[in-house]
Structures are given as C-alpha cells and as structure tokens.
Amino acid sequence: MKYKDGKPGSQQDKSSRVVPMTIMFVVLCGFSFYLGGIFCSEKNRFDASDAKDVAKVVQSSNEMGAGSLQMRSVNFPECSRDYQDYTPCTDPRKWKKYGTHRLTFMERHCPPVFERKECLVPPPDGYKVPIKWPKSRDECWYRNVPYNWINTQKSNQNWLRKEGEKFLFPGGGTMFPRGVSEYVDLMQNLIPEMKDGTVRTAIDTGCGVASWGGDLLDRGILTVSLAPRDNHEAQVQFALERGIPAILGIISTQRLPFPSKSFDMAHCSRCLIPWTEFGGIYLLEIHRILRPGGFWVLSGPPVNYEHRWRGWNTTIEEQKSDYNRLQKLLTSMCFKLYNQKDDIAVWQKSSDISCYDKLAKPDVYPPKCDDSFEPDSAWYTPLRSCVVVPNPKHKKSGLKSLPKWPERLSVAPERISDVHGGSASTFKHDDSKWKVRAKHYKKLVPAIGTDKIRNVMDMNTVYGGFAASLIDDPLWVMNVVSSYAANTLAVVYDRGLIGTYHDWCEAFSTYPRTYDLLHLDGLFTAESHRCDMKYVLLEMDRILRPNGYAIIRESSYFVDAVATIAKGMRWGCRKEDTEYSVEKEKMLICQKKIWYSSNKSS
C-alpha cells in the first residue's frame, strides 16, 4: 500500500497492523456473545411475561384440546342508540373531514383501528321481525326504517307512503309516478332481450327505494340497486328491508366494486348523475362494467327534452346542448342509440371490437386505456378518463354470445380460464360439491328455502356455487369475493349471479340488520393473518338481522374460538359435522338473538 507521501510501507508495518486487527476481532466476537446472552435472557423474560397476557386470550392446547384456538369469553357492550343505523365506512358523522369535490365524502372512508367500535349495534325502538317475502316488496314496518323524508318530500311521486305502523310501496318513482310495472313494460317493448333470458344481470344507479329492481325480479332479471349513504332517504336500507338486492355506493372518484363486463344492463332514472361532466368519467365507468352488447337505459334529463324542459328549471337550448354532448360522448365510447320512446332512451354497447380502433388515433377523446390498466381491478381503484377496451380473447363474454338464462347458470364461462387452476371440469366439480353441501345445510337450518330467509350473503365465494345451489329457493345471494383472493367475480357474473369485491378487514357497504343468512367457508383460515377475527364477527353481527342465521364452515382450529366470540355477541351456536363428517373441518350453526337497547343516545 502507499501512504499519503507516496512511499511504499514496509512488510514490518503490515505485520504490526495485523496484530491489533486480530485482537479487535476477538474482542468483537466476545462482545457479540455477551450481547446474545443479554438478548436471550431478555427474550426469556419477555416470553414469560407475554405468556401471562396471551393466556388471558389463548389458552394452552393442553388445557383446551390440542390443535384448536381458544379465546377468553367476552361480553360485548351495546352501542348507544344513535348508532342504530351505523355504517362505519360511510358514516355521515365523518363527512366534514372529506372533500365535496365530486361528492368524495360519500365514498368509503373506513375508521382506523383505534376508532373501531367494539360494541353491538342496537335495533331501533319498536323494531319488529321484518315482513316476509313477497309481501315485503309492498310494505315494511315503519319502526324498522324510521325515516319519513321521502314520504313528505316526494309524496306526489308515489315512492312510498306511511299508513299506521307501516310504509307502503305503491311502485312509483320520479319518472314513473303511475307505477313501475307500466314503466318496465314500455322498456321491454324497447328491449325485447329483456323478455327471452338474454338480459339477466342489471345495475340501477341512484335506485330510489329499488322499485325498478323489485319489479324485474318477477321477470327473471337480477338487479344490484346502488345508492350512496344519506341522512334522510335511506334508499338502500328501504331496498334491503323490502328483500331487494342493494348495496351502498356512488360513482365518484373510484371504480365501483365490480369486474369489467359484469352487467347486461345499466339503468338511470333521473338519478342526477352528471354524465357529461368531468370528461364523461362516470359514463366511462358504466362502459367498463357493462358487457359488450349490453344496454344503458336513461330516463329523465335530457331525454325527451323537447316536451319536458319546462319542468326541469332550464331552457330548451340548454337541454338540447346537453343531449347532443351526451350523444357525442356515447358515440365516442362505441355506444349506439338502440331505441327511444317518450321519456326512455336506450343505447347499446358495441360488440364489434374494431369500433375501438379509432381510439388509437392522436388527440382522440376519450383515449384508449393503456395495456397496464387492469380492467377488473376495482377495490379502491381510481377512475381514469379512458375507455377500457374489451379483451379480444374473450369472444364469448358478449351478451349475444352467452347462453340465455337459466341455461347460463350451469355452463362454465369462458373467463374461468383466467382463474389460476380454473377450467370447465373444476367448475363442474364445484357445482356438484355445492349441491351436496346445500342439501346438508337445509337439514341443519330448515329455514333455508322458506319465507324466513330472503337476503343471503356468501362472504367468500369462489364461483358462486352456494348461490347456484339455492337458485330455486325464494331468496337471493350477494356473492362476495375477497379483494385479496383470486378474481373469480367475473365468473359469478357470467353465470347470471350478482356480487361484489370486498376486504373483510373493513366494514361492508350496507346498513345494519340487512341480511337473514350469512355463510362463510374457511374465511378465517384464509384471512386471519390480515384481519382480526373479533372485528369480522362484530361486522357480521352488525349486518345480520335479529333472528338471522350464520353458517360458519371452518377449520377445527378456529371453530371453538369463533363460538366463544359469538356467545359474547348474544348469538346461540351449536357445532355440527360437515356433510362428510371430517375432523379437520367443522360447522357452527348460529342464530342472532333479538334484543332491544337499554342505552341512551350519546
């Protein structure tokens, strides 16, 4: 080596430097052993104290049975009465914290862990067991949804009216005050595909009290009614109380929680969504979730503006301009005007993939989304001002290419090949498995298939097999696919069923007391490393109706712990064998008890 003066160092100098380095190395090794001893003793001390704390929650397998998680019994307190309609991720109490631009405050904003409620949401005073289906479509108990705003503010539109202890639903709406059936009859004349099983799944944006979706049930069309949380109208709460599928949501800055090409039909009846504003970004989202060949139906401004403009507090020139902008925007997205009469206009999304070639040209708006933009990503995914072009490899996902309902339910969809390990044979096996399971479930819960169970949720479905096995029963199923699991929700929709993405570490987008039956299959086994089991079960309690049921199919490791928590929520549970009586998997059949609040409002 060289020194700063450039003269070479002698060999003697090198040797003299090696000795101190050797000594230093020995000293460091000894010091590391010393630190290791301290760490081990501290670790043992930590383990000993920590074990005392853990013993309070998880008892040893020697005492409680090997191979099972055991929890300390806890009785959860009641929330105060002003939490009777608590929706944690869409809480009006928190709206002031968020911006008003594009109504972002109405989107999902879930509380942090330290603000989560560890209490049981009470029913309203005077709550009664909901009226049974199909009578519930026409009436519900006032005390179950004690909001009279619609009755007083929209009485001339026949949404609902209060009579004694009940709300009655005459079937009216802003654009169909004379009744929804007449309105849908006209729509079917404009769209013959609504009559022959071609159209099966629909979404109603800004659904009111879901009369449109309720009427379509008798016509073989399954509708997701969508509306935001509000302080007065409680639209989704009314819908679910009536036994009609619905979910809280708003088209704002994030995608709706559905895969691309989900719906055969989308509907807006004066839903007040500004379709032509912000570069048409809301309409671009409708385009994404509507399958090729699907229909978009609009009634209300600016449709039929020539005869309606006087009642809209505007001018005919403004409405004509708005209609022309809408038509131009729809054309740019490969929609064509399909039919129109009176207040209803119908556009159809093109099935011709070549229509989108024009989007590759420079300075075209809206542009084509780049290939990196995943069309099915829809959990807290921002909206973007671009057109999601249908994947050309999916030649059988267009509306005309799908089998008609009900054949569609039992045919393996083309998109199952996009799922890892998915194939026609795995689809068939899954269907057969669920037929056997459903038969077993009905023995354990005889209420399934009767008027006692209407609103059902499969909390972690794969292909919708549970829902398919119950298709002949007087109920509907919300199929939930975890946002962290394989994307199988597209397969669910291609079968003619409905569902949503969700992360069970957070609260679901619904009101309390909205489901009669919750079903889960290995949810805690799959998600307990991310989600606190206690909060998942408290969320299940929030959305389950009093006297409602939960079928919890789980690894034997979790069953006893779940039963302990459930007892603290005032559920009655019993352990049962699965249909094949295997030891590694058990079932809990639980029923939520009805109770009334003893607390005052906070």
From TrEMBL:
Location in the cell: Endomembrane system; Membrane
One example GO MF annotation: methyltransferase activity
Transmembrane segments: 21-39
Keyword Transferase among UniProt keywords: yes
Bilayer topology term: Single-pass type II membrane protein
Pfam (any one): Methyltransf_29
EC top class, as a word: transferase
Any single Gene Ontology cellular-component annotation: membrane
UniProt keyword terms in alphabetical order: Glycoprotein, Membrane, Methyltransferase, Signal-anchor, Transferase, Transmembrane, Transmembrane helix
Enzyme Commission no: 2.1.1.-
Tagged with keyword Glycoprotein: yes
UniProt xrefs under InterPro entries: Put_SAM_MeTrfase, SAM-dependent_MTases_sf
GO biological process: methylation
Similarity section: Belongs to the methyltransferase superfamily.
Record's protein name: Methyltransferase
